[in-house]
Amino acid sequence: MAKGLHMMELAHIIPISTEFIVFRAISAPLEDFFEVSLEWIANSLEERV
After folding, report:
1. Number of domains in the chain
2. What pLDDT, in 10s, does the model give residues 21-45?
3. Nearest 5°: CA angle at 47, between 46 and 49?
């Protein structure tokens, strides 16, 4: 019984951590992309003035 309960706990924890890892893997490059885009936009605006 205790073993079955332990497996249920693992099954509950694993999907959350996997989603979090995937989310970080996707969001990290996006953050870099947005930072670069914002810098590029700021530079373009400065050049026009």
Report:
1. 1
2. 788 888 888 888 888 898 998 999 8
3. 65
